[in-house]
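Need a sequence for this fold. Nothing fancy.
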């Protein structure tokens, strides 16, 4: 297999045709730097092209799946959304199935990562939230296209306009998550599902995935372009870097309060 792109916070292990990508930056809530995004966006096409990879699993080190873009770097001005190539990239097209093993909170950009997977199995500790409007930014990785397809427009609007979270079981009821399992069984179940995919005719699996993707693109194809155009314009014209750190602290405090109230 050709050497894969490497980043210390994104280890990739290939075992018997299953490639597992693990987001490993727990000290920063597994938030993504531009370098990590570059690596991820290069690794997925490389794995997609590899003859010895038939399924990809995307997961993370506990306790969080992914808090999205590194907002501390964004708040300091170290990341310029409007001009940063990595941050503004569109997701690579692939024909290799990708299973999301969601071990904890998938927030904003982390939710968008989860939405890029073909299906999700979630730990009972998982939760899902879209806090773009709390931060003051708009999505550009497909959330406004993919979230309503997963949960319906009404629930998607509620999530995006309130910033409230769905726990794992609510996410399953909404259609975002296929299965919820005990936390210590998450990776075993994700691996089992990957092996179930492997047990099929792999050319047929790839063709089926291509079919689903074509159907998804056939009607609302313009949604992705609209989101990217509007999201990047918002970040370019009305984005206040100095507010990010303050808003991030408020989001985290609110999340803790919501958890304690349940």
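Here you go.
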């Amino acid at each position: 297999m050709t050497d894969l792109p490497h980043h210390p916070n994104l280890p990739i292990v290939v075992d018997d045709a299953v490639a597992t990508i693990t987001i490993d930056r727990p000290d920063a809530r597994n938030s993504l730097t531009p370098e990590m995004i570059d690596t991820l966006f290069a690794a997925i096409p490389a794995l997609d092209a590899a003859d010895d990879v038939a399924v990809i699993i995307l997961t993370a080190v506990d306790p969080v799946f992914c808090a999205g873009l590194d907002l501390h770097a964004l708040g300091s001005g170290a990341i310029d959304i409007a001009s940063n190539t990595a941050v503004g990239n569109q997701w690579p097209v692939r024909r290799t199935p990708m299973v999301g093993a969601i071990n904890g909170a998938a927030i904003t950009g982390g939710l968008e990562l989860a939405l890029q997977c073909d299906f999700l199995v979630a730990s009972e500790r998982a939760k899902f939230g879209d806090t773009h409007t709390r931060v003051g930014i708009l999505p550009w990785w497909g959330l406004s296209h993919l979230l309503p397809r997963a949960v319906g427009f009404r629930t998607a609007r509620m999530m995006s306009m309130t910033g409230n979270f769905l726990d794992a079981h609510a996410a399953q009821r909404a259609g975002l998550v296929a299965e919820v399992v005990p936390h210590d069984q998450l990776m075993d179940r994700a691996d089992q599902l990957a092996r179930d995919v492997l047990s099929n005719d792999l050319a047929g699996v790839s063709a089926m995935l291509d079919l689903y993707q074509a159907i998804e693109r056939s009607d609302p194809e313009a949604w992705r372009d609209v989101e990217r155009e509007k999201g990047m314009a918002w970040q370019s014209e009305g984005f206040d870097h100095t507010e990010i750190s303050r808003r991030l602290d408020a989001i985290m405090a609110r999340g803790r309060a919501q958890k304690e109230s349940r």
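For context: The two ends are 48 Å apart (CA to CA).
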